[in-house]
Amino acid sequence: MPAKKRELMMQQVKQLLNTAGYSIVQLSLESKACFDIIAKRLDKLLIIKLSPYIDSFSRDDSHELKNVASFLNASPLIIGERGKRFDELKDGLVLLRYGMPVVGLETFTNLISQGMPPIVYCSRGRYFVQINRKLLRQSRVEKNLSYADLAQKVGMLREDISVSRRTIYEYEHSINPPPEIAVILENILETPLAEGIKIFDLEIETEERPKYSVDNLSSMKEDVSKILQDLGFISQFWTKLSPFDAFGEHQSHDVRSGLNVLVCVSDDYDKRVINRAVMTQSIASFTKRRAIMIVEEDKEDPLTQTMPTFTIDELQQMKKAFDLVKRWVKKYSDLK
Predict the structure, then answer these.
(1) Does 38 reside within a domain?
(2) Is residue 64 part of a domain?
(3) Could you tell me if 257 and 224 lie in one domain?
(4) Cβ contacts of residue 96 below 8 Å, gap of 6+?
């Protein structure tokens, strides 16, 4: 049943995105990757994970999705149906899970097809409404109300709610109110204060990206990681839940040069590897990144017809990142 729900959700999400003018790269439904869809329209790039039961999306998933999204300059989003605390993700609600937005299909539909953003978000089990702080202050001043006056009026309308002058001050400067208080404030000030939540523009706090890590890597991947580091690809992230094995960004004297690679590593040529190569090349072309396959031996195989392929020996003969880029350009042109 979960697989069927996910398949149906995939069909609905793809149809929505296509209708809205997005181009799409889709991973296989059987994939256990940290994302399922990459969608692009103009300069907006979305990376989406479908998780009907949202609690199955783990911290490991989030760590990888955040870092992949950061590398691709994409906005991460999880679309789900329910969770341990939710019988359903209601329309207009955003749940923040590990700092990333989670919405139901109805909320996603209204956002993509009608431009209607959600207005309520849930963080650590509590609900809040994002408000226009500038408008709150402006309306309060226009009605000649002090922080204390406004707090008192809130208490008069709802005896079960106690709001201090300090709380009103914080609403104007740093925090958002719960939905019930937001409604009261709007009634008192006769002003709509609630704002739509721009879930594609949220600042996603990523865990510190490892600059160089070979933990639990195969010996071949350890060799590849070391060679890339010697070429200047110091910032590396080795994945567990993506079609590609790693991505790296070139840095010189702590300055990013703009050179980057999506890396697949293989000592075999089975169908699964070829499928990963095809998917990685699609993602690279879609997001304007360079994809490379690294193999042990140079021989004719389907991989060399899929993406620029290098042997370990070829990499070891290179002196700097630009050597890799030059060879990549030639191999990529030959494929075309």
Answers:
(1) yes
(2) yes
(3) yes
(4) 102, 121, 122, 123
Half-sphere exposure of 214 (CA within 13 A, CB side): 13
Nearest by Cα to 263 from 316, 211, 227, 313: 227
For residues 92 and 118, is the Cβ–Cβ distance under 8 A? yes
Range of the domain at 144: 131-189
Q: Which helix (H) or strand (E) holds 333?
A: helix 321-335
CA-closest candidate to residue 276, choices 241, 312, 233, 324 = 241
Reported as a pLDDT band with limits 50, 70 and 90, residue 269 is low
d(CA 315, CA 68): 24
Backbone φ, ψ for residue 200 (5° rounding)? -85, -5
- Find out whether 106 and 13 touch, Cβ atoms under 8 Å: no
> Angle, to 10 degrees, between the axis of helix 133-142 and the axis of helix 165-173?
130
Which of 262, 282, 217 minimizes the C-alpha distance to 26?
A: 282
User: In this structure, are residues 288 and 27 in contact, taking their beta carbons and an 8 Å threshold?
Assistant: no
Q: 266, 293 in Cβ contact below 8 A? A: yes
Q: Kindly indicate the confidence band of residue 217, based on its pLDDT and cuts at 50, 70 and 90.
A: confident
Specify the number of domains making up the chain: 3
Q: What is the pLDDT of residues 280-335, one digit of tens each?
A: 999 999 999 999 999 887 666 655 567 899 999 999 999 988 899 999 999 888 88
**95/203: higher pLDDT:** 95
Is there a single domain that holds both residue 325 and residue 279? yes
